[in-house]
Amino acid sequence: MCFSGINFAQNIQIQVGNAPNVFASAGRLPIEITYGYNYSQTIYHAGEINQTGYINRIEWHTAPSSSLGSANNSVVYIGTTSKNGFDSTTDWIPVSQLTQVYAGPYTSSTNTWGGINLQTPFYYNGVDNLVIAFDDNHSSWQPSNSFLVEGRPENRGIHRRSDSLLIQTRTHPELQTLFILIFPIHVYFFLPIIVALMLFLYLQL
66: which residues sit within 8 A by CB, 6+ positions away? Predict the structure, then answer.
């Protein structure tokens, strides 16, 4: 059996949501860059993802009318939760239960998918719900922006923003906003070489 020219390592792309076929003109998830300080958490149900493995990239879609600048001091966390939604504006998932997967800049153009490569891949078990948290502290005003968002029956998103207060992700002392929304995402799962090889051999049977 010849394996020449076969690349066994690959990414599997999962899309949650119907972007680019949905739009909200003032989507604050994952961030609202017109404010200097943002923190948000968004829950995605396991049934929306239907995949297990190591996540190594996530993407989201800017809106056609957005003018997104640069979020130059962003930290992204990923974790799992049994929550189907947030119960109140103070019902944050503690950062201690999340894993930091990225720290650095984020820049995107209008009406396009944009995202980040995770510095620390996150293993998702495919059973619990997935939570993505975005902490942005750029401290200065940026052009107006919005992201594609999509309605859900539960409070899937929670967000706070400030122009003057550095947001402490471990305390969340102030009243926040709940959203019956998600921001549609691409989740990329890295398929390790050994798994890809086993899958290839299985398909040859």
Answer: 110, 111, 144, 145, 146, 147
